[in-house]
Design brief:
Blueprint (H helix, E strand, L loop, with lengths): L3 H4 L16 H17 L1 H15 L8 E2 L3 E2 L2 H7 L5 H18 L1 H17 L4 E4 L2 E4 L2 H12 L5 H17 L3
Antiparallel strand pairs: 1-2, 3-4
Helix pairs in contact: 2-3, 2-4, 2-6, 3-5, 5-6
């Protein structure tokens, strides 16, 4: 939904899509989603962080900490680290997501939906599909959502409109 200022013409929305870069706002959005996952399921988050610490970063387990006394939040530290390149951060995030999917499918679905929503709101050209971060065409993504809404038209009022739009979408090269 457009903001008040956009709807009434006070500002003109610009859709400049981000690619091959992590802005501070996008970094914050990713970290916020990781923190929300932590708040939803602390034990799962501990397990994920521990795995990333010793399997991905190849660090000693004795230096990690434990669930009761506190532990390092390695994923957020890695994503926020300015020394890491943007694609290294996404390599890391993909490993985090793969580990999450193995451990808890429900949380994986929630988390990837949250990240995709953040990516979309920040005009980022990547989405998480099947556990991988892939480049998408944002214009096609918006167009693909229209046919999904067609069956929701009321049967008694929308038959003509529904059939016309279905024909139109069949003729479009999507």
């Amino acid at each position: 939904m457009n903001s008040f200022a956009e709807r009434y013409g006070y500002i003109t929305p610009t859709k400049i899509y981000l690619r091959e870069k992590l802005t501070p706002e996008l970094t914050n959005a990713i970290c916020n989603n990781i923190e929300l996952l932590r708040d939803r399921n602390y034990a799962l988050f501990y397990s994920l962080e521990r795995y990333m610490w010793y399997k991905v970063l190849n660090k000693r387990l004795k230096d990690f900490g434990n669930i009761t006394k506190g532990f390092k939040t390695v994923t957020i530290e890695y994503i926020e680290n300015p020394a890491c390149l943007w694609y290294e951060k996404f390599n890391y995030l993909e490993r985090f997501i793969a580990c999450l999917k193995e451990q808890d499918e429900k949380e994986y679905i929630w988390f990837t939906n949250q990240l995709n929503s953040s990516f979309k709101s920040q005009y980022f050209v990547y989405r998480i599909k099947n556990g991988l971060i892939v480049e998408i065409n944002p214009d096609e993504e918006d167009n693909l959502q229209i046919p999904l809404a067609l069956p929701q038209l009321p049967v008694n009022k929308g038959n003509y409109i529904r059939n016309t739009l279905r024909t139109l979408f069949q003729l479009l090269p999507l």
